[in-house]
Design goal:
Layout: E1 6-7, H1 19-26, E2 30-31, E3 40-44, H2 56-68, E4 76-84, E5 94-103, E6 107-116, E7 119-129, H3 154-158, E8 161-162, H4 164-172, E9 175-179, E10 195-202, H5 210-221, H6 227-230, E11 243-246, E12 248-253, E13 263-273, E14 276-285, E15 290-301
Antiparallel strand pairs: 1-8, 2-3, 3-5, 4-7, 4-12, 5-6, 6-7, 9-10, 10-13, 11-15, 12-15, 13-14, 14-15
Length: 305
């Protein structure tokens, strides 16, 4: 948000569109026939956003879906490394070009570029692996976390505000996100520590397609992660003059996951300097299994005082 939302006399009505169906539509890329390049071409749409900028998690998920379309179905994505190069325009379609870098005995690698107006807005390399066995361990899920059912939804917190970003976050996101500590949408009243945690799941059930759930998790992993950088400095999303942008995004999938079941997203920031901050995240299912890890560097600029 860039402007302070104002309280409306009554709660804003929910939009007629179904955010879950919007998500499924975004991840249903079409193939472009007849392209004579070294890339396999796919085309996707964008969800409308206040300010017209494409949500980064959307482009991550779509780039991953494009890569998945070119890999044998027996191989699952296990890692992704991406750079956000330019802001995308949500009013225009996005073209995804996939290059087959390698197909080995156990691993496959793909490079996806997301294009608008003939230039890349995101560059990603993803790696896929055939099923295999090996040693097993994981970080334990943090103890003492409240149940998601006991926490307010984003709609509870922002649904009565007369502001386009507040309405979009409250009603148009395809994920139910519930903060463990006080959210920093409007104020920063929680602990001044470089950490953040949310419960999240899709608003509606998704088809039983493991690749779709992995891509949807990439989509959701871009929510709230940079809040671990803002919290220790007393910053909220309505800080006047603040500019925030994701620079890159890395993700590792460890175990099968369903995003239509509750997931705990635990986030921390080990460092911030030079108008950049690093954030890391661990995603657990409700059984306590670590299903994915995430890292992202973000640009955070605040006006000089």
């Amino acid at each position: 948000m860039t402007d302070q939302p104002h309280a409306a006399p009554a709660a804003a009505a929910e939009p007629a569109t179904d955010p879950t169906q919007t998500l499924l539509g975004l991840l249903d890329l079409s193939s472009a026939e007849g392209a004579q390049t070294d890339e396999e071409i796919f085309v996707g749409s964008s969800a409308r956003q206040p300010g017209r900028r494409v949500f980064g998690g959307q482009v991550l998920a779509q780039s991953l879906i494009a890569a998945m379309r070119t890999v044998d179905s027996s191989r699952d994505v296990h890692s992704m490394h991406a750079y956000f190069l330019r802001a995308g325009d949500a009013e225009q379609p996005i073209t995804f070009g996939v290059q087959r870098l390698r197909d080995g005995r156990s691993f496959s690698a793909r490079r996806t570029h997301a294009y608008q107006n003939g230039v890349p807005i995101l560059s990603m390399i993803a790696s896929f692996q055939a099923p295999d066995e090996g040693v097993v361990h994981q970080d334990s899920i943090p103890e003492g976390m409240p149940d998601p059912e006991s926490l307010p939804t984003t709609a509870d917190l922002l649904g009565s505000l007369d502001h386009p970003v507040a309405r979009a976050w409250a009603f148009e996101r395809p994920f139910d996100i519930r903060h463990v500590d006080a959210p920093i949408y409007l104020t920063n009243e929680g602990p001044r520590e470089p950490r953040n945690a949310v419960w999240m799941r899709s608003l509606g059930p998704l088809p039983d397609d493991p690749d779709l759930h992995r891509a949807a998790l990439a989509y959701a992993s871009d929510y709230t992660l940079l809040e671990s950088i803002l919290r220790p400095h007393g910053l909220s999303w309505v800080q006047p003059g603040m500019s925030v942008a994701s620079l890159d995004h890395a993700m590792w999938w460890h175990r099968p996951v369903r995003v239509d079941e509750w997931l705990l997203y635990v986030q921390s920031s080990p460092s911030a300097s030079g108008a950049r901050g690093l954030a890391a995240g661990r995603i657990y299912n409700r059984a306590g299994e670590l299903v994915a890890s995430v890292a992202q560097e973000g640009m955070i600029r605040i006006p000089s005082t």
